[in-house]
Amino acid sequence: MTAAARLLETLAQWGVEYVFCCPGTSEIPVLDALATTRGAPEFVLTTHEAISVSMADGYARASGRIGVAYLHTNVGVANGLAHLYAAQVARSSVAILAGIKGTATLPHRALTTSPRLLETAAPYVGHAWQNLRAEDLLEDVSRTLWHTTVVPEQPAILTIPQDHLTADSSVAPPVRSGARQGPAADAVRHASALLDAARRPVVVAGSDVARRRAEADLARLAERLGAPVFVESRRDLERWSFRTDHPLCAGLFEPRAPLLAEADLLVLAGMPTPLEFSAEVPALPPGVPILHLSEDAAEPGRRYVPAGAVVGDTAAALRGLADGIRPECAPSRSEWLVRVRKDSEDRRARWEAEVPWDGEFSAALAMRTVADVVGGERLLVLDAVTSTLPLLRFLRRTRADSLFATASGSLGWGMGAAAGVAMARRERVFAVVGDGVVQFGVPAFWTVVRHRLPVTYLVVNNGKYQAVVAGLRKSGGERADCPLTDISGVEISALAMAFGIKATTVDGAEGLRAALAEDPGPDDGPRLIEIRVNDRLWQ
Amino acid sequence: MTAAARLLETLAQWGVEYVFCCPGTSEIPVLDALATTRGAPEFVLTTHEAISVSMADGYARASGRIGVAYLHTNVGVANGLAHLYAAQVARSSVAILAGIKGTATLPHRALTTSPRLLETAAPYVGHAWQNLRAEDLLEDVSRTLWHTTVVPEQPAILTIPQDHLTADSSVAPPVRSGARQGPAADAVRHASALLDAARRPVVVAGSDVARRRAEADLARLAERLGAPVFVESRRDLERWSFRTDHPLCAGLFEPRAPLLAEADLLVLAGMPTPLEFSAEVPALPPGVPILHLSEDAAEPGRRYVPAGAVVGDTAAALRGLADGIRPECAPSRSEWLVRVRKDSEDRRARWEAEVPWDGEFSAALAMRTVADVVGGERLLVLDAVTSTLPLLRFLRRTRADSLFATASGSLGWGMGAAAGVAMARRERVFAVVGDGVVQFGVPAFWTVVRHRLPVTYLVVNNGKYQAVVAGLRKSGGERADCPLTDISGVEISALAMAFGIKATTVDGAEGLRAALAEDPGPDDGPRLIEIRVNDRLWQ
Q: How many Cα atoms occupy the beta-carbon half-sphere of B221 within 13 Å?
């Protein structure tokens, strides 16, 4: 057997079901081997490497397995890089294999060859290596896959010279898995004491809670604590981690909500250091002591000096704290809890008043409609920039680990990620994306059609780079109408139809409601609803 | 005035006419300054950074000025990287300015921020810098622009913290320009002696000849030498550098043409080391002594040890050699010249027989038709992968520096590059691209429509990754029908129409001829002709 065939076997041994690729000639030995290797992973063709990587990422997040993208040379790696950053931010187990020219050609001035390929990828991976000897290829592949599973997970990359794929090859090395670490007992004790002492604690449910399927553990801790739980802020959210029908759920974490400044402990439960947008916009309520639960030892303390930190597996940390605290302290927090919940209800009422059902068809009203219809149980992928905030404000979620978003700001991620989530979960995914996002990820349409993937793209088409419009307004200039924010003119539904997607256009809440009500099944292939909203976010 | 306004002034002083951008919030001070700064460059909105960079590159190549792309943070730089490689391969004067978060935010965990941003770009630029102090911004911008003009030209990148754009700023530093070096006199003497001694010389006209507008200098050298001149090979061609109606023109350089092995001197005139596709495919006829004229001292000797090398400005080198050789040697080469020209005519006759006018509508026949109709004088941009070879074989070119291609293999380059060439030359550009290329560069459609650019996309739609099909055939496997090469299913003309481009579909040579005959003027905006060919390259 050739090394290429053994490579396919090795991937299969690791539980890799799919390889997302957009092949060039350097990958030919692998394509050849696919014809003859039994049990090989299925190769999923994409027509741009940005889609290969975002699909692998979406698949990895939603399946808990390794997402593998096989890219073509230095240009393919470059094309996948922005979404590799998204995978890194999400600590997604994405392995990049990249075909490069043969070792007899690499030293020369060769087509699609950079002697510094790995340097471009290194900032976005935890492990970067070029296979040096054909006889080490399988070991290198295994090590690359393994690296993506080591907590804190990061993507990894291996470049593979073409001639090493055609060499004879021995048996694949055994599968190994990344070790997880539990939290240190003294850290849990210290944190439990902090919690016991808190009278006005606030818990933020980070994405790692859903990732580790620890929603119930978080609920148990919150119940014993008697503390309100917020869902991670719009900026940080990668997975929705607390069900909104839980009595302790206080809705979306918005750091500038005035009441939060009165908290005496902020529990960041299973998340990295919150992302900062700018120095003027605080990512956390200022001055509130922090208890930081993180799986990455480098996160607590990176920006804020926490009063306590628990580093280790999120589920284990939550269980340890729930067992470590004294539940008899809970009643002392009941007044605070009532105030927070009242405040959350008031905020929600204000939001609803700001976006009335009979208002103009703004992005916010479209999002309120989507939240109302698509609701709590459907799989959601979000990459809608400014529309994300109103959607998250109105969403009610009741199903564990069923919402995926990116905190990376890598536009276009959702186009491929939704396809990857659909492959992992084998049910319909609703992808809420902006019109700018569509232009960043058009080739995703090709793959969802070819594989008849059950993705419904909900495209909020406002013809604007609305985030830039908002920024211009805030800057105090008079250029909110700057022509460089105007990306109108694309018929998104016609664009999708050119790829063979069933698409429809709506321009009001009722039309949107009707279109959403159609609800094709998981076998009905991709759909697109172009939602033509006005050019204002809120009304 | 703010630094942002001064930055715009600085760009204008350097002769920068356009800035290609896809802005995010980090660029807001620049957008604000645009409203109030007189004489600022025009900002051209693109809807993906791959288009910003390929437009800047096409513009730089066709204008001789600096092409500036203003990108958004680490993700924007990542998205532009593959085409930055194309600019590097072409030694294109492309300057990347990248907006990043403010200095008070950068050290934190910030949105769209990598502490190692410059590392990703460094392999593809000659100069990479982050502006450290607001008071140095204009100096840093100037230095970045200057670096792109220093021979051998390379792209350069400067990252600009947002807060440095709003600082007060002093006057811009003076414009400086990259020095050019002439060749050393003894190198010219040695090379002249090699030429005098050659009885069967062959000249390859490299892209630097057209870049330096040195076509006449090359013609004079060739005439005094009495030597045949080939146009750079399909793999290396970035600019067409020798008119086909010159009596010494021997057509396209194809290294494996048997007669070339009989040459006794191969003159690489104004090009880097030829690109290698694989160790099995020689990039030069083996064993023939080389005389290498290059503007980059690192190119001669990089792969082949040349018998002679002349390093320096291509025009100066060609003039020096034309004056240095003894024209009385020319008659001794006449028999060789007759043989080479006869061989070239025979090759062309074979090519024509292989692709008869009444044959099936293959990519080759489509390209023969395009070559016949679009012909010698129109501006051409090529990014058509396998279709490029038949097109180049059939092309006759009579206008200096009017054809642009990439040797990078960075798919999609031609989509934006054609738009950049159209902005630089203000006349209609014919962009010959593959259907796979279109999928890599869809957002270019948006910008050509918004700016009504006179680009006619000629899309060779074979529904295949034909290069991979060819590679699979050569590999001896039975997988030439591998489903991973099949990218059919897109109605390219419908896709273009969704953006507002007038598009038509043809499926035969006569239809193509008729569509090409329409010939809209330079003010008629973009057009697209989808050329549906069969799935074979040659017949």
A: 32
- Which H helix or E strand runs over A510? helix A509-518
Residue B18 phi, psi (nearest 5): -130, 150
Judge contact between B437 and B383, C-beta under 8 A.
yes
* CA A183/CA B506 separation, integer angstroms: 66
Per-residue pLDDT of chain B (539 residues; tens, 9 = 90+): 899 999 999 999 999 999 999 999 999 999 999 988 999 999 999 999 999 999 999 999 999 999 999 999 999 999 999 999 999 999 999 999 999 999 999 999 999 999 999 999 999 999 999 999 999 999 999 999 999 999 999 999 999 999 999 998 777 778 887 777 899 999 999 999 999 999 999 999 999 999 999 999 999 999 999 999 999 999 999 999 999 999 999 999 999 999 999 999 999 999 999 999 998 889 999 999 999 999 999 999 999 999 999 999 999 999 999 999 999 999 999 999 999 999 999 999 999 999 999 999 999 999 999 999 998 899 999 999 999 999 999 999 999 999 999 999 999 999 999 999 999 999 999 999 999 999 999 999 999 999 999 999 999 999 999 999 999 988 876 666 789 999 999 999 999 999 999 999 999 999 999 999 998 988 899 999 999 999 888 87
Domains within chain B, CATH numbers bracketed? 3-165 (3.40.50.970), 185-343 (3.40.50.1220), 355-532 (3.40.50.970)
Inspect the interface and report whether the beta carbons of A120 and B123 lie closer than 8 Å: yes
- Chain B CB contacts of A438 under 8 Å are none
B137 HSE (CA, 13 A, CB side): 28
CB-CB under 8 Å, A303 with B111: no
Q: How far apart are the first and last CA of chain B?
A: 63
**What is the C-alpha to C-alpha distance for residues B413 and B382, in angstroms, rounded to an integer?**
9
Cα–Cα dist B173/B531, whole Å: 51
A2 phi and psi, to 5 degrees?
-75, 160
Question: Residue B415, CB half-sphere, CA atoms under 13 Å: how many?
Answer: 28
Which of B75, B409, B478 has the CB atom closest to A409's CB atom?
B75
CB-nearest to A123 from B116, B442, B465 is B116
ipTM surpassing 0.95 = yes
Check CB contact under 8 Å for B109 and A468. Answer: no
Cα separation, B54 vs B81, whole angstroms: 10
For residue B7, give how far its alpha carbon lies from the nearest alpha carbon of chain A (Å): 18
d(CA B381, CA B240): 11
Buried b or exposed e, range B435-462, using 16+ CB within 10 angstroms: bbbbbbbbbbbbbbbbbebbbbbbbbbb
H/E stretch holding B270 reads: none
Distance from CA of A213 to the nearest CA of B (A): 25
Are A124 and B114 spatial neighbours (Cβ–Cβ below 8 Å)? Answer: yes
CA-based nearest distance A203→chain B, Å? 20
Query: Residue A408 and residue B75: Cβ atoms within 8 Å?
Result: yes
Which residues of chain B does A465 touch, with a Cβ-Cβ cutoff of 8 Å?
23-24
Residue A35: which of B102, B439, B477 has the nearest Cβ? Answer: B477
* Preceding peptide of B174 cis, ω within 30°: no
Whether residues B276 and A45 touch (CB distance < 8 A) is answered with no
Evaluate if pTM is beyond 0.95. yes
Q: Mind listing the pLDDT tens digit for each residue in A229-281?
A: 999 999 999 999 999 999 999 999 999 999 999 999 999 999 999 999 998 88
The string of DSSP codes covering A342-408 is HHHHHHHHHHHHHS-TTS---HHHHHHHHHHHHTTTSEEEEE-GGGHHHHHHH----STT-EEE-SS
